[in-house]
Specification:
This protein folds into two domains: 91 residues, no CATH class; 93 residues, Arc Repressor Mutant, subunit A (Orthogonal Bundle), CATH 1.10.10.10. Helix 1 crosses helix 4, helix 6 packs antiparallel against helix 7 and helix 6 packs across helix 9. 66% of the residues lie in helices and 0% in strands. It is an all-alpha fold.
Length: 213
């Protein structure tokens, strides 16, 4: 019943969120109120962030394989349903929110990719492009499961670099936004992003996803 109410509310919120550009302070204020338990603030937030979430989802899915069956609207709705289920989150600002949204989108996309690969063999050439112009941009033949596994390995070695990649690739955050989320300098983000890109490129071009060989 609760999930049905959330889905219904999110559909209405989408329509209201198609117009207007929210101010960062307005979004941050609602996030902090939501963190204090204000459900009305949470419900008021979706219309303000929907366009930006959809833009980021669209940008990611445009880099995915041509036959991808998950649509941007469905990705945003599923991420929103998971976001509203978060309890006792002390939201810092809008960048923090989009960072958590990036984590949600990663989980959804990986789950979707596992379903796509189930029962199929993994083969053929694999190429990954980590593009500064759009976060980490993967070519259509990049396997998401392999990238996800490589990112887990990177995070185990260097948690901050793993966070930077997740925020850039799945969340579409700029270097400045990543710096804000992680409370580090932009120069540090730039340096560690370059290191992480090199590590991931070597890993995904030489490895295979366990169980999909």
């Amino acid at each position: 019943m609760k999930a049905d109410r959330v889905r219904s509310a999110s559909r209405e919120d989408v329509q209201r969120g198609l117009h207007g550009t929210p101010q960062p302070d307005e979004v941050t204020g609602l996030l902090r109120a939501w963190g204090r338990g204000d459900v009305q603030a949470r419900d008021a937030l979706m219309p303000l962030v929907y366009k930006e979430l959809r833009r980021r989802a669209t940008a990611y899915l445009r880099r995915e394989r041509a036959d991808h069956t998950l649509q941007p609207t469905a990705l945003v709705h599923e991420a929103y349903l998971r976001l509203v289920g978060q309890e006792r989150v002390v939201w810092q600002n809008r960048a923090h929110f989009y960072g958590v949204a990036a984590q949600m989108m990663r989980r959804i996309l990986v789950d979707h990719a596992r379903g796509h690969h189930r029962g199929k063999r993994f083969g053929g050439a694999l190429r990954v492009i980590l593009d500064d112009r759009a976060g980490a941009a993967a070519s259509p033949d990049c396997d998401l499961l392999l990238l996800d596994q490589a990112l887990d390995e990177l995070t185990a070695t260097d948690a901050r670099q793993g966070q930077i990649v997740e925020l850039r690739y799945f969340g579409g955050l700029s270097e400045s936004e990543v710096a804000e989320v992680l409370a580090i300098s932009r120069s540090t983000v730039t340096r560690e992003w370059q290191i992480a890109k090199g590590w991931l490129y070597r890993r995904v071009t030489t490895g295979r996803v366990q169980g999909l060989a």
